[in-house]
Write a structure and sequence with these properties.
Two copies of one chain form a homodimer. Chain A contains 22 helices and six strands. By secondary structure, the first copy, chain A, is mainly alpha-helical. Chain A folds into three domains: about 110 residues, MgtE N-terminal domain-like (MgtE N-terminal fold); about 110 residues, Roll (CBS-domain); about 170 residues, Tetracycline Repressor, domain 2.
């Protein structure tokens, strides 16, 4: 690449999958990457741009003139084109849209840009094969031929009436197997699942997973067919969701990756770290209130980490179990009371086992004459396990009701709360039980 | 259902999606569910069984005779049939296989059972459309017609030579648009990505995601086409992986769900809780070693939770970032040294900010005359942030090298280690700095 040998690049890249070219270009700087793209034809170039990492793509497109970007966009499916436009600086965005030559693409892009990125409207593409219910198979095949350039994968042909209302679908298999003159009306399947433009992307993902769909038609509020969502977009939704959950669980507050700048990473990490510190200051204040007891029995201090660790771990486990159930709403049918009772029993059982172990640890270490500490620590462990389970179960449920991603409750939030809880319960019990 | 009114059930269920029937049956007991299935026809029944929750299905199939199960299996795609067989008790398994009437299904099932569930061979189905390279379009369409009952979704037709070696693929779109007499040889696409039977399921998922594939052909060691993996199976792999990571991150050691028994849940939760307790006992022993200092300056004790919380949170954040990079291997190209240096800079920056805040908290609380504690806590925070970052970064890398899922390192393991680390660093620094 360094030698800018056009024919060499063209030859080497011939037959290489665009996804591999993208991976290669992720590693070189914008100017050189642009050179490679200029050499390739626009169709492959468009695929390469689609597959680039988001960050690389942003830097990379800065090297291009708006009309050059527009040329690539024409080759893409409308949903991918809009994703890329939405990622551009506002000014470039307008210029790019203005320079799209193909009137159909321009119309599609403008329509799709109206929708929020996280809803069905923002996921859907305008490219699909639509047949009128009064057509026959031959007319439908002609339509497929007309659309062949635009629609990469067909999956199903959607059947609409004269008002573009969705009536059903015909599988491509049925079209192949039916004679040219067979009416669509007589072979289409009325049972069809659809989504609506305003639905949340996760709801769409759930529906497509539940019914095992490769593509789902999108209707607008008037019931007209306006686009379709394909399974590859849903995989991205699922993967992004898993990544977001993981980050929330670990207290990273915005979407960062290891190759972001040091400053960006620190900024995403600091909020929860600071909250954790402030939270533990409350723990410190609690300990301050029990200063006398702590002064009298220094041994008490030694078991503070144990109470904190147990509270934190129990809380995270409980919230993860609840979050998991919330994610699979289908098996979320047991009544709330029944589930809370079950959670309490589990907490009691777990707490008892841990308390016995804690008691043994204390007695082995401190000797049988200091058994009273064993009782204090054991009782406190049971109390903390119970409270942390309740907190860990209720917090995600409340967050979910408030439409906040409950994964945040499996993170530093629950650890910090339970750390404090652990200290308070422990010292209160010590205060009660010790002379 | 209670009244066992067969015609009523048949009528109500008519036109209802099997996935919805499954959801309904998840809620009733095995015997009643069986009654509903007996009323429905086998094809729909098979779909309903496929869609059931794994636990419900296991209980449910106990109600059936082996030959009844076999009848449903014949209606399923081979990969789903094998998944269900693998879930049966060993004895029933043999009986079911023996009672499969359809010789083709029996052969497929037996072949697929040889493969490990977690590899490409275990994911693939035998159902696919294969065309010989010497056929023409008409012959291919006849093959599609023959297979129409078995292959639910076609995606692509795979092209093989006389030895069943994979040569390429033809999209179904191209078949529709080509005349009957056109040779497959002249329209097939040689660029085809395949996987091999022994590949790990996650590797297959990565490949299908990277190249945006709906289906991928599977070759055996001899290069012969033996099956194909479809995108819906990959979605399950991705979802399961995300769930497994979440559980590992929260210290739940086996795959449990909220609706498992109290005992199963407790058993899955206890191991990490016990490890956490033992770990914090080490923290306690450390504090024991500094008993004199703690006795002299009780104030020191108050900030132990802060150091523990910071260490734990920093460690989890660092490991999550690394694990995320490990998951997207494609952008994992920066050299190890470069990344470690970056991680250290981030840790220093984060540590400095936190240290300043900690210093302010201490001084505000304890007054300017106890500023020495502010210095101790601040310095300790920097030390802990650095050490926890290093631990959090290196542990997942080592686990990954050892082929252990690194997500485990974002869980109680890192918290416990860093809790102890926090205490040691803090008390050591206090010992050094205080008179």
């Amino acid at each position: 690449i360094a030698r800018e040998d056009a024919s060499f690049i063209r030859e080497t890249m011939d037959g290489v999958n665009p996804a591999d070219i993208s991976q290669l270009l992720d590693e070189v700087d914008g100017e050189r990457a642009k050179y490679v793209l200029d050499v390739l034809n626009n169709e492959i170039g468009a695929e390469v741009i689609e597959e680039l990492e988001e960050d690389t793509r942003r830097d990379f497109l800065e090297e291009f003139e708006p009309h050059e970007i527009a040329e690539y966009l024409v080759e893409m499916e409308s949903d991918d084109a809009v994703d890329i436009i939405n990622d551009l600086p506002v000014k470039t965005r307008e210029q790019v849209i203005a320079s799209i030559n193909d009137p159909e693409t321009a119309a599609h892009v403008q329509e799709l840009m109206r929708y929020d990125e996280d809803c069905a409207g923002g996921l859907m593409a305008k490219e699909m094969i639509v047949a009128n219910i009064n057509w026959n198979v031959k007319e439908t095949i002609e339509e497929i031929r007309r659309q062949v350039e635009n629609v990469e994968r067909i999956y199903s042909v959607y059947v609409v009436d004269d008002n573009y209302k969705l009536k059903g679908r015909v599988s491509i298999k049925k079209i192949i197997l039916s004679g040219d003159r067979v009416k669509i009306q007589s072979i289409y399947d009325e049972d069809i699942i659809h989504v609506e433009t305003y639905m949340d992307e996760e709801e769409v993902a759930d529906i497509m997973q539940k019914y095992d769909l490769d593509a789902v038609p999108v209707l607008n509020l008037q019931g007209k067919l306006v686009g379709r969502i394909t399974i590859d977009d849903i995989i991205d939704v699922i993967t992004d969701q898993a990544e977001e959950d993981r980050q929330l669980m670990s207290g990273i507050s915005s979407d960062v990756e290891e190759d972001d700048t040091i400053w960006a990473i620190s900024k995403a990490r600091l909020p929860w770290l600071i909250i954790g510190m402030v939270g533990s200051t409350l723990g410190a204040l609690t300990m301050g209130a029990f200063e006398q007891e702590l002064d009298k029995y220094v041994t008490l201090v030694f078991f503070i980490p144990m109470l904190m660790a147990t509270g934190g771990n129990v809380g995270i486990q409980s919230s993860t179990l609840i979050i998991q159930s919330l994610a699979n709403r289908s098996n979320f049918e047991e009544s709330l009371t029944k589930r809370l009772i079950k959670m309490l029993f589990t907490a009691v059982l777990t707490g008892l086992v841990l308390a016995v172990i804690a008691f043994i640890i204390v007695v082995v270490w401190k000797g049988a004459d200091q058994m009273q500490f064993g009782f204090v620590v054991g009782t406190a462990i049971i109390g903390v396990t119970l409270l942390a389970s309740i907190m860990g179960t209720i917090t995600p449920l409340i967050l979910d009701k408030l439409d906040v991603n409950p994964a945040i409750a499996s993170g530093p939030f629950i650890t910090t709360t339970n750390d404090i809880l652990g200290i308070v319960v422990y010292l209160a019990i010590a205060n009660l039980l010790l002379p």
